[in-house]
Amino acid sequence: MHPIFLPLSAATVAHYRRGGLDSNGQPPERRIVQPGDGVPCRHTLEYLPEGSAYLVVGHRPFEGLNPYTETGPLFLAADEAVPGAVPSSALPPFLTAPSYLVRGYSADERIVYGTGAVTPTERIIERCADLLARDDIAFVHIRSASNNCYHVRVERSAG
What we know:
By secondary structure, this protein is mainly beta. The chain folds into two domains: about 10-75, no CATH class; about 90-155, no CATH class. About 10% of the residues lie in helices and about 30% in strands. It is built from two helices and eight strands. The protein has helices at about 10-15, 125-130; strands at about 5, 30, 55-60, 70-75, 100-105, 115-120, 140-145, 150-155. The strands form two sheets. The protein has a five-stranded antiparallel beta sheet with strand order 1-8-7-5-6. It starts with a strand and ends with a strand. The mean pLDDT is about 95. This is DUF1203 domain-containing protein.
């Protein structure tokens, strides 16, 4: 079993690129990547190039609603021609900080207490594999260790 890193879905990104309302009921904000910004796109799983347009949206990376389904800001390439990443067992290129919060969730989208840990980036795949080996963990989130921003969802590989 290998963990698979999943970009934000093409359908979700298309909704925001068309100006669809975010999880806070607001239209996306449009900005331009400035020198030194380091804008991590949750659809390409890469940093966006300087000068490119991007969207800022309030997003809830969950299917349902409950007290654990957090909403937070994320960035997306604004250009419809920019394709999303392919789900992969490789660590996404935009995970370049020294560490991230890695946290497991149950099938009903609730935090499984005791699973959240600030994890060195080079140990993320191992940590995700350990969590996903547990029956009580349905998926994992990788989040900013300093701001708790959602970065990427991780699931079990199909094979």
